[in-house]
């Protein structure tokens, strides 16, 4: 167990050192992602084995009673290869910050934001892909996107009163019928081959998610009108937007950014950890990700962007569009004194403005600087941090990603707030499934931490 704790720290340090030298590997010409992994995985397995042999018994940190009662907050106990969250810098995807990803990852022809396909290649391999490799991945996902008939029938018969996230996780669970991992495991495949079947399942699932998500949207909010066919000349985001019924090029660029930045946030958050935990029992990627989606649906996790919008609308109703700073402060203090929080502010790990917030703010400044709701968000950004700092009880008074994403979706006409977490889920699959491939490649065991009762802790400390 010591190994699993120590590498979480080591990884954070080494990832900062490996940019840009490590972002291009020897497989720069191959457009076959699986072939690239076949070359990389044995080398990584050897590196991990040698590291464990040398450092496996070393200790990192201590666990306090408050950590145990506080939701395991701050305990270093997971391996998450794809990203590390730094309290001051924010998220790094395989060592790369969001601005670095925006600059270096391939874009669509004439586009301005990175393609999620490129981010997935980076998460899986550690290499920045070429445009050719990214295009190949777009085409492969388009080729794998068709849903089985029973899942289409299931989605079309879901009652409209069922929440979109409930429909989403149910459909992903039903896709388990297509699992190549389940078939191979049942037939007795050697454990060294597990990752290959998890890879196939992950690729198929990621390809199908926009189709599932768009079908739910059309059924609930567009009178069940068909989503149309997948276009293998379009990228993953562009196909998703078309199926939703949004053909605005700016909205497509926003979705490319949205699906990239929401993809991964290291392994300790609820959706990532849940997917990882369920996968450690050798549940296939469909069942694992469905479990993660159910965690994402909680108001303290993926549902938070919806909570922000509800609060903003209440604020806007009171202060209007010609608001004053004093009016904003009065409403915010009223919120706090009533025992509520300002939604979208603070983060369990971050101690600065979330870089995911910042890049969305930059998008808004470029494309919708005069939108009244964006102006309100920008003004709240100036007012809230000093108030929270004055309270003295908040470790991070700065906004997180949820403070901004819903505002942008509202501007482009996607106003159905209940659906927003589904889009978050489509994106989150990229990170958690990339990690699941590596979890099986490195032979991670079933996750089983030790738990204690309050009585046992009292006895231990002689209280």
TrEMBL record:
Keyword hit for Transferase: yes
Positions of transmembrane segments: none
Protein name: Citrate synthase
Active site (record annotation): 301, 347, 402
Database matches in InterPro entries: Citrate_synth-like_lrg_a-sub, Citrate_synth-like_sm_a-sub, Citrate_synthase, Citrate_synthase_AS, Citrate_synthase_euk, Citrate_synthase_sf
Entry similarity comment: Belongs to the citrate synthase family.
Domain of life: Eukaryota
GO CC annotations, alphabetized: mitochondrial matrix
Pfam family, one: Citrate_synt
Annotated compartments: Mitochondrion matrix
GO biological process: carbohydrate metabolic process; citrate metabolic process; tricarboxylic acid cycle
GO molecular function, one term: citrate synthase activity
Keyword Nucleotide-binding appears in the UniProt entry: no
Assembly, per entry: Homodimer.
This protein's pathway: Carbohydrate metabolism; tricarboxylic acid cycle; isocitrate from oxaloacetate: step 1/2
Annotated keywords: Transferase, Tricarboxylic acid cycle
Known catalytic reactions: oxaloacetate + acetyl-CoA + H2O = citrate + CoA + H(+)
Gene3D superfamilies, alphabetized: Citrate Synthase, domain 1 (1.10.580.10), Cytochrome P450-Terp, domain 2 (1.10.230.10)
Protein species of origin: Arctia plantaginis
PROSITE patterns linked to this entry: CITRATE_SYNTHASE (PS00480)
CDD domains cross-referenced by the UniProt entry: ScCit1-2_like
């Amino acid at each position: 167990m010591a190994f699993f704790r120590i590498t979480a720290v080591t990884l954070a340090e080494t990832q900062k050192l490996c940019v840009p030298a490590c972002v291009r590997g020897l497989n720069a010409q191959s457009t076959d992602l699986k072939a690239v992994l076949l070359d990389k995985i044995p080398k990584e397995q050897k590196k991990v084995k040698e590291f464990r042999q040398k450092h496996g018994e070393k200790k990192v940190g201590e666990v306090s009673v408050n950590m145990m009662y506080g939701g395991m907050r701050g305990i270093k106990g997971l391996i998450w290869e794809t990203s590390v969250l730094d309290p001051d810098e924010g998220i790094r995807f395989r060592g790369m910050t969001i601005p670095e990803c925006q600059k270096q990852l391939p874009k669509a022809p004439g586009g301005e934001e990175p393609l999620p396909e490129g981010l997935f290649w980076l998460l899986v391999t550690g290499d920045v892909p070429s445009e050719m490799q990214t295009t190949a991945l777009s085409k492969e996902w388009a080729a794998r996107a068709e849903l089985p008939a029973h899942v289409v029938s299931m989605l079309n018969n879901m009652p409209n009163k069922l929440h979109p996230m409930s429909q989403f996780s149910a459909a992903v669970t039903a896709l388990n019928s297509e699992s190549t991992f389940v078939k191979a495991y049942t037939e007795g495949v050697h454990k060294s081959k597990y990752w290959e079947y998890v890879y196939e399942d992950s690729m198929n699932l990621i390809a199908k998610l926009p189709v599932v998500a768009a079908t739910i949207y059309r059924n609930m909010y567009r009178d069940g009108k068909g989503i149309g066919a997948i276009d293998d000349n379009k990228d993953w985001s562009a196909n998703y937007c078309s199926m939703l019924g949004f053909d605005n090029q700016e909205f497509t660029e926003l979705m490319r950014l949205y699906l990239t930045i929401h993809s991964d946030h290291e392994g300790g958050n609820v959706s990532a950890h849940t997917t990882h935990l369920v996968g450690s029992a050798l549940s296939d990627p469909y069942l694992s990700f469905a479990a993660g989606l159910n965690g994402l649906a909680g108001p303290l996790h993926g549902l938070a962007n919806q909570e922000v919008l509800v609060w903003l609308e209440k604020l806007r109703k009171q202060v209007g569009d010609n608001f004053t700073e004093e009016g904003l402060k009065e409403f915010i203090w009223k919120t706090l004194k009533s025992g509520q929080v300002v939604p979208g502010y603070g983060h369990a790990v971050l101690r600065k403005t979330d870089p995911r917030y910042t890049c969305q703010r930059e998008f808004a400044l470029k494309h919708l600087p005069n939108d009244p709701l964006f102006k309100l968000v920008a003004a709240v950004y100036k007012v809230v941090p000093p108030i929270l700092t004055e309270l003295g009880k908040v470790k991070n008074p700065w906004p997180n990603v949820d403070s901004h994403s819903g505002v942008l979706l509202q501007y482009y006409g996607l106003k159905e707030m209940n659906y927003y977490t589904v889009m978050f889920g489509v994106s989150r699959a990229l990170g958690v499934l990339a990690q699941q491939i590596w979890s099986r490649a490195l032979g991670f065991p079933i996750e089983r931490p030790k738990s204690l009762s309050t009585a046992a802790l009292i006895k231990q400390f002689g209280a």
